[in-house]
Amino acid sequence: MIVDVDTHWEIANSSKHGPLAPWRDHLPGYGDLLAFAIAGDLLTALPEAERPPARQLLPALFARADAAGKGVVLHPAHDSSAAERVAWMDRIGIDHCLVNPGGYWQYLPFVPEADRVKAVRRCNDFLAERLGDARGRLHPVAIVDFEDLDVAVGELEHVRQRGARAFFLYTHAGRPPGNRSLGHPAWDRVWTAATRLGMVAVIHVGNTGADFSGWADIGWNEPDGAGVGGLVRLANSQRAHAAQNLLSALLFGGVFARHPALTVLLEELRVNWVPPFFAMLERQSLPQPALGEWPFAISGGDMLRRNVRLTPLPGFGDDDALDVLRAMPRSTVWSSDYPHQEGNADPIRLYGDALDRLDPMLRRAFLGGTMQACFERMGDPLAQRAA
After folding, report:
1. Which of 178, 263, 301, 309 has its CA 20 to 30 A from that of 368?
2. Gap between the Cα atoms of 166 and 374, Å rounded
Protein backbone atom coordinates (compact mmCIF):
# COMPACT_ATOMS: atom_id res chain seq x y z
CA MET A 1 0.00 0.00 0.00
CA ILE A 2 1.32 3.48 -0.96
CA VAL A 3 0.07 6.36 1.20
CA ASP A 4 0.70 10.01 0.27
CA VAL A 5 0.43 12.02 3.49
CA ASP A 6 0.77 15.53 2.05
CA THR A 7 -1.22 16.66 -0.98
CA HIS A 8 -3.27 19.83 -1.47
CA TRP A 9 -6.62 20.82 -2.91
CA GLU A 10 -6.43 24.04 -4.87
CA ILE A 11 -9.26 26.03 -6.38
CA ALA A 12 -9.19 29.00 -8.73
CA ASN A 13 -10.08 32.49 -7.46
CA SER A 14 -10.59 31.15 -3.96
CA SER A 15 -11.28 34.45 -2.21
CA LYS A 16 -14.38 35.01 -4.34
CA HIS A 17 -15.72 31.53 -5.00
CA GLY A 18 -14.37 29.38 -2.20
CA PRO A 19 -15.97 28.44 1.11
CA LEU A 20 -15.14 31.83 2.62
CA ALA A 21 -17.05 33.78 -0.02
CA PRO A 22 -19.58 35.11 2.55
CA TRP A 23 -16.73 37.10 4.10
CA ARG A 24 -15.12 38.30 0.85
CA ASP A 25 -15.33 41.93 1.97
CA HIS A 26 -12.96 41.10 4.84
CA LEU A 27 -10.45 39.14 2.78
CA PRO A 28 -7.24 40.61 1.34
CA GLY A 29 -6.15 40.29 -2.26
CA TYR A 30 -4.08 37.26 -3.16
CA GLY A 31 -0.78 39.17 -3.18
CA ASP A 32 -1.42 40.44 0.33
CA LEU A 33 -2.45 36.93 1.37
CA LEU A 34 0.89 35.57 0.11
CA ALA A 35 2.74 38.16 2.14
CA PHE A 36 0.71 37.17 5.20
CA ALA A 37 1.28 33.45 4.62
CA ILE A 38 5.02 33.86 4.16
CA ALA A 39 5.78 36.52 6.75
CA GLY A 40 2.62 37.56 8.56
CA ASP A 41 3.82 36.68 12.05
CA LEU A 42 6.96 38.75 11.55
CA LEU A 43 5.21 41.69 9.88
CA THR A 44 2.72 42.07 12.73
CA ALA A 45 5.67 42.29 15.15
CA LEU A 46 7.06 45.32 13.27
CA PRO A 47 5.85 48.87 13.80
CA GLU A 48 3.12 49.44 11.24
CA ALA A 49 5.10 52.13 9.42
CA GLU A 50 7.95 49.67 8.84
CA ARG A 51 5.92 46.83 7.33
CA PRO A 52 6.72 46.55 3.63
CA PRO A 53 3.74 46.11 1.29
CA ALA A 54 3.38 42.79 -0.49
CA ARG A 55 4.91 44.07 -3.73
CA GLN A 56 8.04 45.17 -1.88
CA LEU A 57 8.25 42.05 0.27
CA LEU A 58 7.93 39.63 -2.68
CA PRO A 59 9.45 41.52 -5.62
CA ALA A 60 10.35 38.46 -7.71
CA LEU A 61 6.81 37.08 -7.62
CA PHE A 62 5.31 40.44 -8.59
CA ALA A 63 7.89 40.97 -11.35
CA ARG A 64 7.05 37.56 -12.80
CA ALA A 65 3.35 38.40 -12.66
CA ASP A 66 3.90 41.77 -14.34
CA ALA A 67 5.95 40.17 -17.13
CA ALA A 68 3.23 37.60 -17.75
CA GLY A 69 0.46 40.17 -17.54
CA LYS A 70 -1.29 38.06 -14.90
CA GLY A 71 -1.99 38.19 -11.19
CA VAL A 72 0.71 37.25 -8.71
CA VAL A 73 0.87 33.54 -7.84
CA LEU A 74 3.15 31.30 -5.82
CA HIS A 75 2.14 27.93 -7.27
CA PRO A 76 1.11 27.22 -10.86
CA ALA A 77 -2.64 27.44 -11.38
CA HIS A 78 -4.34 24.16 -10.61
CA ASP A 79 -8.06 23.65 -10.17
CA SER A 80 -8.44 20.26 -8.50
CA SER A 81 -11.17 17.70 -9.10
CA ALA A 82 -11.70 14.25 -7.63
CA ALA A 83 -11.50 12.62 -11.07
CA GLU A 84 -8.22 14.37 -11.87
CA ARG A 85 -6.73 13.43 -8.52
CA VAL A 86 -7.70 9.75 -8.63
CA ALA A 87 -6.41 9.45 -12.21
CA TRP A 88 -3.07 10.91 -11.09
CA MET A 89 -2.96 8.50 -8.13
CA ASP A 90 -3.59 5.56 -10.45
CA ARG A 91 -0.72 6.63 -12.72
CA ILE A 92 1.68 6.81 -9.77
CA GLY A 93 0.32 3.75 -7.96
CA ILE A 94 -0.89 5.62 -4.87
CA ASP A 95 -3.63 3.92 -2.85
CA HIS A 96 -4.56 6.70 -0.39
CA CYS A 97 -3.94 10.44 -0.10
CA LEU A 98 -4.34 12.75 2.84
CA VAL A 99 -5.56 16.00 1.26
CA ASN A 100 -4.81 19.31 2.91
CA PRO A 101 -7.12 22.25 2.23
CA GLY A 102 -5.88 24.58 -0.47
CA GLY A 103 -4.67 28.12 0.03
CA TYR A 104 -8.18 29.28 0.89
CA TRP A 105 -7.73 28.16 4.51
CA GLN A 106 -5.11 30.87 5.02
CA TYR A 107 -7.84 33.50 4.69
CA LEU A 108 -9.39 32.28 7.96
CA PRO A 109 -7.55 34.77 10.23
CA PHE A 110 -9.25 37.59 8.30
CA VAL A 111 -12.76 36.29 9.00
CA PRO A 112 -14.37 38.14 11.93
CA GLU A 113 -13.65 36.25 15.14
CA ALA A 114 -17.34 35.83 15.93
CA ASP A 115 -17.75 33.90 12.64
CA ARG A 116 -14.54 31.86 12.82
CA VAL A 117 -16.10 28.55 13.93
CA LYS A 118 -18.76 28.83 11.24
CA ALA A 119 -16.10 29.61 8.63
CA VAL A 120 -14.04 26.58 9.71
CA ARG A 121 -17.09 24.34 9.27
CA ARG A 122 -17.68 25.76 5.78
CA CYS A 123 -14.05 25.03 4.82
CA ASN A 124 -14.27 21.46 6.07
CA ASP A 125 -17.60 20.75 4.40
CA PHE A 126 -16.34 22.32 1.18
CA LEU A 127 -13.38 19.94 0.99
CA ALA A 128 -15.36 16.89 2.07
CA GLU A 129 -17.95 17.48 -0.64
CA ARG A 130 -15.29 17.64 -3.33
CA LEU A 131 -13.53 14.49 -2.21
CA GLY A 132 -16.69 12.47 -1.67
CA ASP A 133 -16.66 10.85 -5.11
CA ALA A 134 -13.15 9.42 -4.72
CA ARG A 135 -14.22 5.98 -3.49
CA GLY A 136 -12.62 6.37 -0.08
CA ARG A 137 -9.11 7.07 -1.37
CA LEU A 138 -8.97 10.84 -0.81
CA HIS A 139 -9.13 11.76 2.86
CA PRO A 140 -9.64 15.39 3.94
CA VAL A 141 -7.32 17.03 6.45
CA ALA A 142 -9.59 19.17 8.60
CA ILE A 143 -9.15 22.66 10.00
CA VAL A 144 -10.13 22.89 13.66
CA ASP A 145 -10.44 26.01 15.82
CA PHE A 146 -9.03 25.07 19.24
CA GLU A 147 -9.99 28.20 21.16
CA ASP A 148 -12.85 26.21 22.73
CA LEU A 149 -11.78 22.59 23.15
CA ASP A 150 -15.33 21.24 23.51
CA VAL A 151 -16.29 22.90 20.22
CA ALA A 152 -13.09 21.48 18.70
CA VAL A 153 -14.03 17.93 19.70
CA GLY A 154 -17.46 18.45 18.13
CA GLU A 155 -15.77 19.53 14.89
CA LEU A 156 -13.55 16.45 14.94
CA GLU A 157 -16.67 14.30 15.25
CA HIS A 158 -18.28 16.13 12.36
CA VAL A 159 -15.34 15.99 9.98
CA ARG A 160 -14.71 12.31 10.65
CA GLN A 161 -18.27 11.61 9.56
CA ARG A 162 -17.42 13.51 6.36
CA GLY A 163 -14.36 11.32 5.71
CA ALA A 164 -11.49 13.26 7.31
CA ARG A 165 -8.57 11.21 8.61
CA ALA A 166 -6.35 14.04 9.88
CA PHE A 167 -6.49 17.60 11.23
CA PHE A 168 -4.19 20.60 11.55
CA LEU A 169 -2.48 21.72 14.73
CA TYR A 170 -1.20 25.29 14.90
CA THR A 171 0.44 28.03 16.90
CA HIS A 172 -0.59 31.66 16.93
CA ALA A 173 2.43 34.01 17.02
CA GLY A 174 4.31 31.31 18.91
CA ARG A 175 1.53 30.73 21.43
CA PRO A 176 -0.71 27.67 21.72
CA PRO A 177 -4.41 28.05 20.90
CA GLY A 178 -6.29 29.50 23.84
CA ASN A 179 -2.92 30.22 25.53
CA ARG A 180 -2.89 26.75 27.07
CA SER A 181 -0.15 24.27 26.21
CA LEU A 182 -1.12 21.25 24.14
CA GLY A 183 0.58 19.17 26.83
CA HIS A 184 -1.96 20.20 29.48
CA PRO A 185 -4.43 17.46 30.52
CA ALA A 186 -7.26 19.80 29.52
CA TRP A 187 -6.34 18.89 25.93
CA ASP A 188 -6.83 15.18 26.60
CA ARG A 189 -10.40 15.37 25.32
CA VAL A 190 -8.93 16.31 21.93
CA TRP A 191 -6.36 13.51 21.85
CA THR A 192 -8.93 10.97 23.07
CA ALA A 193 -11.29 12.00 20.27
CA ALA A 194 -8.51 11.93 17.69
CA THR A 195 -7.46 8.38 18.48
CA ARG A 196 -11.02 7.13 18.91
CA LEU A 197 -11.89 8.57 15.51
CA GLY A 198 -8.72 7.29 13.83
CA MET A 199 -7.34 10.73 12.98
CA VAL A 200 -3.74 11.96 12.69
CA ALA A 201 -2.66 15.37 14.03
CA VAL A 202 -0.68 17.32 11.40
CA ILE A 203 1.87 20.08 11.99
CA HIS A 204 2.23 21.68 8.55
CA VAL A 205 4.24 24.73 7.53
CA GLY A 206 1.93 27.74 7.49
CA ASN A 207 0.44 26.63 10.80
CA THR A 208 3.62 27.35 12.77
CA GLY A 209 3.43 31.06 13.50
CA ALA A 210 6.31 32.34 15.65
CA ASP A 211 6.68 35.15 18.18
CA PHE A 212 8.93 37.77 16.58
CA SER A 213 8.29 40.43 19.21
CA GLY A 214 11.44 42.52 19.38
CA TRP A 215 13.28 40.21 16.98
CA ALA A 216 11.46 41.46 13.87
CA ASP A 217 13.02 44.91 14.00
CA ILE A 218 16.34 44.18 12.28
CA GLY A 219 16.48 47.63 10.68
CA TRP A 220 15.85 46.12 7.28
CA ASN A 221 15.10 49.52 5.73
CA GLU A 222 18.06 51.37 7.25
CA PRO A 223 20.89 52.47 4.91
CA ASP A 224 23.17 49.68 6.11
CA GLY A 225 20.35 47.20 6.77
CA ALA A 226 19.82 43.82 5.14
CA GLY A 227 16.93 45.00 3.01
CA VAL A 228 13.70 43.16 2.38
CA GLY A 229 15.66 40.01 1.49
CA GLY A 230 16.93 39.80 5.04
CA LEU A 231 13.45 40.42 6.40
CA VAL A 232 11.69 37.68 4.45
CA ARG A 233 14.46 35.21 5.26
CA LEU A 234 14.14 36.00 8.95
CA ALA A 235 10.40 35.41 8.68
CA ASN A 236 11.03 31.84 7.54
CA SER A 237 13.69 30.99 10.11
CA GLN A 238 11.37 30.00 12.97
CA ARG A 239 8.91 27.52 11.45
CA ALA A 240 10.68 24.51 12.90
CA HIS A 241 11.01 26.24 16.28
CA ALA A 242 7.22 26.44 16.63
CA ALA A 243 6.96 22.75 15.72
CA GLN A 244 9.62 21.96 18.33
CA ASN A 245 7.57 23.72 20.98
CA LEU A 246 4.51 21.69 20.04
CA LEU A 247 6.40 18.39 20.17
CA SER A 248 8.17 19.24 23.43
CA ALA A 249 4.83 20.07 25.05
CA LEU A 250 3.29 16.79 23.91
CA LEU A 251 6.25 14.74 25.13
CA PHE A 252 7.02 16.41 28.45
CA GLY A 253 3.36 17.09 29.22
CA GLY A 254 2.74 13.34 29.13
CA VAL A 255 0.38 13.33 26.14
CA PHE A 256 2.26 10.51 24.41
CA ALA A 257 2.22 8.53 27.67
CA ARG A 258 -1.53 8.97 28.14
CA HIS A 259 -2.39 8.48 24.44
CA PRO A 260 -0.07 5.81 23.05
CA ALA A 261 -2.06 5.46 19.80
CA LEU A 262 -1.80 9.15 18.89
CA THR A 263 0.19 10.02 15.75
CA VAL A 264 1.58 13.52 15.12
CA LEU A 265 2.87 14.15 11.60
CA LEU A 266 5.36 16.87 10.56
CA GLU A 267 4.91 18.21 7.02
CA GLU A 268 6.93 20.69 4.92
CA LEU A 269 9.08 21.76 7.84
CA ARG A 270 12.36 20.37 6.46
CA VAL A 271 13.73 17.27 8.14
CA ASN A 272 17.45 17.87 8.72
CA TRP A 273 16.77 19.31 12.20
CA VAL A 274 14.65 16.39 13.38
CA PRO A 275 17.26 13.71 14.18
CA PRO A 276 19.42 15.94 16.44
CA PHE A 277 16.36 17.49 18.06
CA PHE A 278 14.86 14.09 18.86
CA ALA A 279 18.23 12.94 20.19
CA MET A 280 18.27 15.95 22.51
CA LEU A 281 14.71 15.25 23.71
CA GLU A 282 15.65 11.63 24.31
CA ARG A 283 18.63 12.67 26.43
CA GLN A 284 16.43 15.10 28.34
CA SER A 285 14.06 12.26 29.20
CA LEU A 286 16.74 10.12 30.84
CA PRO A 287 16.91 9.99 34.65
CA GLN A 288 19.50 12.51 35.86
CA PRO A 289 20.49 13.93 39.25
CA ALA A 290 19.56 17.46 38.18
CA LEU A 291 16.35 16.54 36.33
CA GLY A 292 15.12 13.70 38.51
CA GLU A 293 13.46 10.47 37.46
CA TRP A 294 11.55 10.14 34.20
CA PRO A 295 7.88 9.99 35.33
CA PHE A 296 6.65 7.50 32.73
CA ALA A 297 7.14 3.79 32.17
CA ILE A 298 8.14 4.26 28.51
CA SER A 299 11.23 6.28 27.64
CA GLY A 300 10.93 9.62 25.88
CA GLY A 301 12.86 8.27 22.90
CA ASP A 302 10.50 5.34 22.50
CA MET A 303 7.50 7.67 22.70
CA LEU A 304 8.90 9.89 19.94
CA ARG A 305 9.59 6.88 17.72
CA ARG A 306 6.09 5.55 18.38
CA ASN A 307 4.03 8.74 18.21
CA VAL A 308 5.74 11.11 15.76
CA ARG A 309 6.10 10.83 12.00
CA LEU A 310 7.87 13.20 9.60
CA THR A 311 7.75 13.47 5.84
CA PRO A 312 10.59 14.89 3.74
CA LEU A 313 10.10 16.92 0.59
CA PRO A 314 13.11 16.95 -1.76
CA GLY A 315 11.63 19.81 -3.79
CA PHE A 316 11.52 21.89 -0.61
CA GLY A 317 15.20 21.40 0.15
CA ASP A 318 15.25 17.96 1.80
CA ASP A 319 18.08 16.62 -0.35
CA ASP A 320 19.07 14.36 2.54
CA ALA A 321 15.62 12.75 2.74
CA LEU A 322 16.82 9.17 2.42
CA ASP A 323 19.64 9.78 4.91
CA VAL A 324 17.01 10.83 7.44
CA LEU A 325 14.95 7.78 6.52
CA ARG A 326 17.92 5.54 7.28
CA ALA A 327 18.55 7.36 10.56
CA MET A 328 14.86 7.29 11.57
CA PRO A 329 13.35 4.30 9.72
CA ARG A 330 10.37 3.97 12.06
CA SER A 331 9.45 7.64 11.82
CA THR A 332 9.95 8.79 8.22
CA VAL A 333 7.10 8.55 5.69
CA TRP A 334 6.60 9.57 2.08
CA SER A 335 4.64 12.41 0.49
CA SER A 336 4.39 14.29 -2.81
CA ASP A 337 3.01 17.78 -1.98
CA TYR A 338 1.06 17.48 -5.25
CA PRO A 339 0.16 19.78 -7.03
CA HIS A 340 2.46 22.40 -5.45
CA GLN A 341 5.67 23.41 -7.16
CA GLU A 342 7.80 22.04 -4.31
CA GLY A 343 6.42 18.62 -5.14
CA ASN A 344 6.48 16.75 -8.39
CA ALA A 345 3.86 15.21 -10.66
CA ASP A 346 5.93 12.01 -10.63
CA PRO A 347 7.03 12.07 -6.98
CA ILE A 348 8.32 8.52 -6.56
CA ARG A 349 10.58 8.83 -9.59
CA LEU A 350 11.88 12.09 -8.11
CA TYR A 351 13.90 9.98 -5.67
CA GLY A 352 15.51 8.10 -8.54
CA ASP A 353 17.60 4.98 -8.19
CA ALA A 354 18.39 5.72 -4.54
CA LEU A 355 14.86 4.71 -3.56
CA ASP A 356 15.15 1.46 -5.48
CA ARG A 357 18.42 0.67 -3.74
CA LEU A 358 16.80 0.75 -0.31
CA ASP A 359 16.16 -2.48 1.54
CA PRO A 360 12.77 -3.64 0.18
CA MET A 361 11.17 -3.73 3.63
CA LEU A 362 12.35 -0.20 4.40
CA ARG A 363 11.10 1.04 1.02
CA ARG A 364 7.64 -0.46 1.61
CA ALA A 365 7.49 1.04 5.09
CA PHE A 366 8.52 4.48 3.81
CA LEU A 367 6.03 4.54 0.96
CA GLY A 368 3.04 3.51 3.02
CA GLY A 369 3.51 0.69 5.49
CA THR A 370 4.48 2.93 8.40
CA MET A 371 1.43 5.16 8.01
CA GLN A 372 -0.81 2.17 7.42
CA ALA A 373 0.35 0.83 10.79
CA CYS A 374 -0.47 4.16 12.49
CA PHE A 375 -4.09 3.99 11.37
CA GLU A 376 -4.28 0.33 12.35
CA ARG A 377 -2.96 1.22 15.80
CA MET A 378 -5.97 3.50 16.27
CA GLY A 379 -8.31 0.68 15.27
CA ASP A 380 -9.48 2.31 12.02
CA PRO A 381 -7.20 1.06 9.21
CA LEU A 382 -7.10 2.40 5.70
CA ALA A 383 -9.03 0.13 3.35
CA GLN A 384 -7.13 -2.12 1.04
CA ARG A 385 -7.52 -1.04 -2.57
CA ALA A 386 -9.68 -3.34 -4.63
CA ALA A 387 -7.73 -5.44 -7.10
Report:
1. 301
2. 12
